[in-house]
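FAQ: What does the model actually see?

It sees only this:
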Amino acid sequence: MDDRMLSGAPFLHAGSSTRRIMLDVILSLTPAVIAALVIFGARSFLLICISAAACAAVEFAACKLLKRKNSAGDLSAVVTGVLLALTVPVSLYPPLILIGAVAAIFFVKMLFGGLGKNYVNPALAGWAVLTLIFPGRMTAWTKAFGYLGSADAATTATPLANVSTINSAETPGIPELIVGLHGGSIGETCAGALILGGIYLTARRVITPVIPAVFLGTAALISLIAGRNILTELCSGGLLLGAIFMATDYTTSPVTFKGQLIYAFGCGLVTMLIRILTPLPEGTGIAILLMNLLTPLIDRIAIARPFGVRSRFRGGKAA
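And it is asked to produce this:
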């Protein structure tokens, strides 16, 4: 960490540990997991369990291979596995999620030094790899309660896909979006469950509301300017999942308030530009990954400098 990001000693211990924080994140994801179980059936829970176990196993194996202290017990790999599973459709062939787990944990997290040293969110990186390799399978959405066996419940489009094709008749209303009565990835459909998780994380002070609020606020403002339905945009796709659980990742988001404002605004802006200007109905994951890569630059621009020290990014003489 850059020494300029630290104030002078002594420091106060907040009473938190990595394991405690990860337990809070797991608890905050419980409503979304329960909603997925109800909406998509036991297969969704199976995928979540496989993904979490695979990520933990890959981290354990990587520690052995790289001769490092075993870090699987801090539960960060489990959190990555749960988040990865929440980004995939319930129809995904279970062994394929192992590829995402290896990409997320081994190539994105462990090869860069482990927890706290990765440059992008591991779960989103795993999602991106799966999407690039298996685009068809990663967009094979299943209707809500399709596991009950209704004749027309095999596949469906997401609400954002309907919006992008001006198929408003097929776009769910706000109540349906809140409770998740539509197609989508395992963890993105039930907006209400994600909001509950965000409230829990904020109340526990695991996250601050700055990044989610600015991220969602920017998306809402651009939706208003573009003449799109604000609530549909906010409650559809991976926006809530990304803004609350992905963009707030400690390692890949800025540490300063100013930096968080810039970062979150960029996430919201890129998300909506992708949704509006490209054939892709969703852009949250791409936006967050892009801003993750820009986080080091944002931190260097936004970091408070000692009085009299000239910025590398601005001209002028030191005071």
